[in-house]
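Deliverable D5.2: sample structural annotation.
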Amino acid sequence: MTYFSNNIKFLRKRRGRTQDDLAFALNMKRSTLSGYENQVAQPGIEALVAFSRHFNIAIDTLVKIDLAALSESQLRQLERGFDVYIQGSELRVLTTTIDSNNTENIELVEEKAKAGYTTGFADPEYIKVLPAFHLPFLSNNKKYRSFQISGDSMLPIPDKSYVTGEYVVDWNFIRSHQPYIILTRDEGIVFKIVENKLKDEGLLTLHSLNTLYEPYDIGAGEIREVWKFIHYISSEMPEPNRERDPLTETVRQLQREVQAIQMKLNL
């Protein structure tokens, strides 16, 4: 248990607790806790579960990750429950920025920054130079990021639109047939309608709104981040749906004919 002893001591002190305080909260003897912190004793599974529940941090994280080496923003993400292991992947802790009031920003990844984001998404130095802003109608209890999309695969959402997503912690809760922004290992940032097949097949199937583009699959190992679509901003008006115009006129004509028949029957 490489980091467990140091981690529980670090978390205890971070919360301003004494050994007596923590031992009481965990219903164990102070000497037992001291033994764990000083690597004199090794915890069993019940003790590991107790520490995990108390600190709201996964057992894998407590054992495998040096929490003292994480940034303050990463620690805050962990403490808010943003700590998910998917089989075959490493710990995913989102790198983020905060403003002077300690409120998380919405960082903006413009088209020119998308290539750099593919490799710098976990680098605090890269993230902190991205433009940042706030939207008053979004919750302060959730993490958002905006991305500029390119191309016509998601028409009628126009090229160069800015799409905002809510960070998805647990990929198992990705809802099929809903839009998501996904950071992939090879393709970078993609904006698609998603079918969640992670549980049965270990992959996502990605669909475009533009039916000229064929759907395709990506494995869980190719995914770096997932953001649930919230809204988009564009300076362009969507193109009118020409296919519906004839249908609308047909319906109107039928309505006029029905009204004419009713008028004759009332004569």
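Annotation notes: The first helix runs from residue 4 to 14. The domain at 4-69 is CATH 1.10.260.40 (434 Repressor (Amino-terminal Domain)).
The annotation will be released with the project's public dataset once the embargo ends.
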